[in-house]
Specification:
Radius of gyration: 16 Å
Number of helices: 6
CATH class: Alpha Beta
Strand content: 15-25%
Shape: globular
Largest sheet: 7 strands, mixed
Structural class: alpha/beta
CATH topology: Rossmann fold
Strand order of the largest sheet: 5-4-3-6-7-9-8
Oligomer: single chain
Order of helices and strands: HEEHHEHEHEEHEEE
Distance between the termini: 37 Å
CATH architecture: 3-Layer(aba) Sandwich
CATH superfamily: Vaccinia Virus protein VP39
């Protein structure tokens, strides 16, 4: 079954007043390979074996800006941990409206739907990511996933659960994300963050609900990755 994806115009890099055309789904299919994330084999994703070649293709494409690295073309540790958690603990999302913040490939969004989420909104500022989410949803026969751009300036109305994987990768992004997550928690949302020990995520006040050893995205080895809940 094809994915049910409602794409909306969004600003390039999240900046207001600049719109980009949707990236053609054929671009994602042509420049990636289908793989199963090692910790979430239930899901198949279009990922890049050659990130440099993909980035060069993005820069040349008409569909959007190529300034942003192709974060969407990998299954990052925090996202794999969150996806594993919701699949293993479906009661967290079952029957509920879920926001996948910084969706990237859409792995967490797809896992939430497979675990029984009523609806899923996948948010990412990158137009390539927004197309990839739809392509990956179709690849897995998952419906009920909508796609949008930057939501950090909005109130999380109509959302029951926020899932945020690998969002605290630098100081600037963390400074934008954490206030949104706390607003969501204060509105009654359950908020879960998947993170592989990056220094920008303050762990004080967070509750660890699960931990996994996730293979490194680049290179050998494992990264101990924690799923945190904002209590």
């Amino acid at each position: 079954m094809p994915a049910s994806v409602a794409a909306v115009p969004a600003a390039r890099g999240g900046l207001p007043g600049v719109t980009v055309r949707p990236v053609p789904s054929g671009f994602v299919r042509a420049h990636t390979q289908v793989r199963r994330p090692s910790s979430v084999p239930e899901v198949r994703l279009h990922v890049a074996d050659d990130v440099v070649a993909l980035w060069e293709a993005m820069e040349a494409a008409d569909g959007g800006a190529g300034e942003t690295p192709p974060f969407w073309a990998a299954a990052w540790p925090g996202g794999q941990a969150l996806a594993r958690y919701v699949l293993d603990t479906p009661g967290v999302v079952a029957g509920r409206a879920v926001l996948d913040l910084g969706s990237g490939s859409g792995l967490v969004a797809l896992a939430a739907r497979l675990a029984g989420a009523r609806t899923v909104l996948a948010s990412d500022v990158d137009p390539f990511s927004r197309t990839a989410v739809g392509v990956n949803a179709g690849l897995n026969g998952v419906t009920g996933v909508s796609v949008t751009g930057d939501v950090l300036g909005r109130d999380p109305a109509g959302i029951d659960v926020v899932l945020a994987g690998d969002v605290c990768y630098d100081r600037e992004m963390t400074g934008r994300v954490l206030p949104f997550l706390h607003r969501a928690r204060d509105r009654g949302c359950d908020v879960f963050v998947g993170d592989p020990g990056r220094p920008h995520l303050p762990q004080e006040g967070l509750q660890a609900v699960a931990a996994y050893d996730i293979p490194e995205t680049e290179g050998p080895g494992l990264r101990r990755t924690t799923v945190w809940r904002l209590p």
